[in-house]
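thought: fold this chain, then report.
action: predict
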Amino acid sequence: MEFDIGEYSIWGTYRGGVVERNEFSRCIEIAMGGNKEGKELRRNAKKWSDLAEEAMKENGTSSVNLQAFANEILLGHNEY
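observation:
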């Protein structure tokens, strides 16, 4: 398991697709901790959250792309 946000990564080990309790706890402590690594992870998570929110707004990139896709499928042409 890996959480890669910006400069820092949190690597986790798992067996057969199941993350063990102590490894999960270690990764959460890093992400939620007050050290530089934890702050960087949270800052980047906030940045991506804000970008996703903007994309979902009316006339945001997701809205525009979804409309273009629907036009292509339903009408057989693009209207940008």
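thought: worth noting. The mean pLDDT is 80.
final: tokens above.
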